[in-house]
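Hey L., structure's done. Input below.
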Amino acid sequence: LSDNMSMNIAYTVSKALMEKDIYLLKKSLNTFLLEAISFHDTVNENYYHGLLLGISLLFHEKYFVRSNRESGNGRYDIALEPKNIGRLPGIIIEVKSKNDNAESLAALAKKALEQIDAKQYDTDMKNRGVQTVYKYGIAFYKKTVEIATN
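Output:
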């Protein structure tokens, strides 16, 4: 995977997150997974968490990027809190992965999204005045991804 292609995919993923374009987000992540990673990379959820965290760092000028922090009644995977509150949405990402085909990826993504609400991961952002929070449940199985959003 060339540097230009990697940056283009990372940029497209970040743009899709900001615009809540699920189709583009899924397509870009699937392209990246298919072209860039090995099945040996996909042993557990931590790999995918790190991948999304790395892409999220593209937001560092406009967002505080946080990983595995407590908020509400639990600990979210990734949160992007806008530095300029009121102009940009907050973003919370919950990552899930599976090692077998037992559960549908779409159901797992939905479960991740429901976890964000059930555990109130947006509590800290809301307390700091962030009005709009985009929530993403992202589920991976090897080189395939499914996404659920609010």
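The first strand starts at residue 63 and ends at 67. The two ends are 32 Å apart (CA to CA).

-- N.
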